[in-house]
């Protein structure tokens, strides 16, 4: 074969190798969500996995480096489970999935979203515990989990979230006592209302009192 005949092949190979792998893996992560959910309103119709990155997909926002920074799917009539792949979106700042019909657990992999500022999962049908891995989200300012069916204790580790400004865990089925340390000391009862098995922060002397009632 003449040498010139190899040029198109070499050009094709080098352009494939130069493609930003990170952008593709973020598209793959989002596409895993599309495959997992039921989408009667076709809000995810533009999510085409053959595109080089997900930055032109509706409800997805990227930064100048084509990394995903926002996912805006509030009130989108979606149902199904949240996928662990979402935890790969390392530059994601806003995960807005409120007012849908998501079921199942909050994936502990969401603790990998190290740029996250806002996690809005309120008004769904999520079950299971609040993952303690969320305590790794050191930039988190808004954590709204209200109006789901979450159970278990509020992980004490979450009090480490020093930037947390808004917390709403109301209208769930959480149990145990409300942690009072760290950033949680500024939250009032309004953040925890209507969890029938959750007990207020009770202090006896300066030792936290925990009734030790069954909590699952
Ligand atoms: C949650 O599920 C119940 C049925 O178990 C349903 O009646 C309700 O509408 C659902 N809530 C949301 C927010 O989808
Ligand atoms: C949390 O949400 C509930 C129900 O939507 C609301 O009543 C409550 O005021 C909210 N709390 C805060 C602190 O925003």
From TrEMBL:
Protein origin, superkingdom: Eukaryota
Entry-linked Gene3D superfamilies: Ribonuclease Inhibitor
Protein name, UniProt field: Leucine-rich repeat-containing N-terminal plant-type domain-containing protein
Record domain Leucine-rich repeat-containing N-terminal plant-type: where: 24-63
Record key words, sorted: Leucine-rich repeat, Repeat, Signal
Record carries keyword Repeat: yes
Pfam families registered for this protein in UniProt: LRR_14, LRRNT_2
Signal peptide: 1-23
Annotated ranges, domain Disease resistance R13L4/SHOC-2-like LRR: 71-169
């Amino acid at each position: 074969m003449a040498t010139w005949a190899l040029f198109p092949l070499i050009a094709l190979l080098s352009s494939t190798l130069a493609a930003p792998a990170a952008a593709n893996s973020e598209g793959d992560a989002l596409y895993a969500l599309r495959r997992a959910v039921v989408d009667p309103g076709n809000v995810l119709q533009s999510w085409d996995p053959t595109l080089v990155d997900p930055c032109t997909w509706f409800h997805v926002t990227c930064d100048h480096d084509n990394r995903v920074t926002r996912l805006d799917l509030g009130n989108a009539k979606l149902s199904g489970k949240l996928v662990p792949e979402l935890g790969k979106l390392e530059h994601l700042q806003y995960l807005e999935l409120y007012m849908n019909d998501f079921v199942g657990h909050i994936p502990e992999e969401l603790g990998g979203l190290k740029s996250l500022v806002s996690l809005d999962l309120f008004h769904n049908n999520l079950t299971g515990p609040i993952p303690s891995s969320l305590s790794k989200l050191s930039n988190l300012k808004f954590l709204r989990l209200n109006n789901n069916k979450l159970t278990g204790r509020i992980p004490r580790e979450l009090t480490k979230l020093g930037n947390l400004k808004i917390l709403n865990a109301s209208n769930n089925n959480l149990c145990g006592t409300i942690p009072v340390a760290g950033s949680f000391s500024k939250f009032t009862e309004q953040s925890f209302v209507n969890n029938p098995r959750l007990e207020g922060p009770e202090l006896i002397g300066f030792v936290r009192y925990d009734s030790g009632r069954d909590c699952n």
